[in-house]
Amino acid sequence: MPGPTGRVLALLELLQSGGTRTVAELADRLGVEGRTVRRYVSRLIDLDVPVESVRGRYGGYRLAPGYRLPPLMLSNDEALAVLLGLAAGRRAGLTTAERTASETASAKIRRVLPQHIAGRLDALLAAVALTDEPREPDPPDAEVLLTIADAVRHSRPVSVDYTDRDGRHSERTLHAYAIVAHAGRWYVTGRDARAGEDRTFRLDRMETARVLPGSFEAPVETDPAQRLLSGFATAEYRHEVTLRIHGTSEQIRAHLPASVARLEEDEPAAGGAPAAERWLRVELRVQRLDWLPGVLASLDRPFVIERPDELRTLVDALSQRLASYARQA
């Protein structure tokens, strides 16, 4: 049976699980009398833990937000879940400007983990292999991220100081619809009030953000992530490429994901299954063409290049090089 200090900490853990707990419930869980529960609550209050007393038929005790984070009680499973989440976030590049925050948080939790649990966690992290190492993340400022999120939630316009990819600085008023994390970067989709168009902005390029008075009616965002990926596929790059590829959408998407290309059915399936192979039109915009011949070869599907002619020349050159390699002894 734990001593008084252990029961006080157990009481804190019960309160942190949320909701209002009656004195009878707490007494039963702790194995003490009601007056002892009240004495333990007084000890927590003396330690500046913000415990509120709720009166009435369904009254009892609950935790209230305090001026600082109260002591946090985590089970071993909960601590492992938090540490794995922090590790996964770092590896995926989903961090804020304070990159050391996740590292110091991890260190604080690891210090209080039992040695055998910490050792098993180290073994797991060492054994995990990533199929794709993330690029160096471009973290946004934490305050900017939280301000934009609040504007999204309450449909409030926000003023941002933004630097575009050419290094030009400007102040914009944005009607933010949604925040999307993709490939180690944070993006916000919304309407640029100055341009009068829906745009996508990188949050790491925003220096400051300030919520403005007023509100707006946001469109129904059925899939903000798909909107972002479609925007990537139709971005203003140097070359417009149109192909027809015979296969399934799954076969094509394995090499040309939604962030790169748009797919549409070129030839309706005549009573066939939706996943049946058929001709699909593929459209994409790219800054360079030199990587596309290799992708088309790896597809191993029949394809027709509609435009540009330069891509047809590059594919022909690749085929001749491969044929010459195959003839070598």
Secondary structure layout:
Blueprint (H helix, E strand, L loop, with lengths): L3 H13 L6 H8 L3 H13 L4 E4 L5 E4 L12 H17 L6 H14 L2 H13 L14 H13 L3 E6 L5 E14 L2 E8 L4 E6 L3 E6 L12 H10 L5 E9 L1 H5 L7 E5 L12 E9 L5 H8 L3 E5 L1 H19 L2
Antiparallel strand pairs: 1-2, 3-4, 3-7, 4-5, 5-6, 8-10, 8-11, 9-10
Q: Calculate the mean pLDDT score and round it.
A: 80
Count of individual helical segments: 11
The percentage helix is: 40-55%
Q: Quote the beta fraction.
A: 15-25%
Description:
The protein has eleven helices and eleven strands. The protein is an alpha+beta fold and 329 residues long. It has a five-stranded antiparallel beta sheet. Strands 9-10-8-11 form a four-stranded antiparallel beta sheet. Strands 1-2 form a two-stranded antiparallel sheet. Helix 1 (4-16) crosses helix 3 (34-46). The longest helix has 19 residues, at 309-327. The radius of gyration is 28 Å and the shape is elongated. The mean pLDDT is 80. Strand 5 (185-192) and strand 6 form a beta hairpin.
In short:
The protein is of the alpha+beta class. Helix content is 40%, strand content 23%.
Features:
single chain; alpha+beta; five-stranded antiparallel sheet; 11 helices
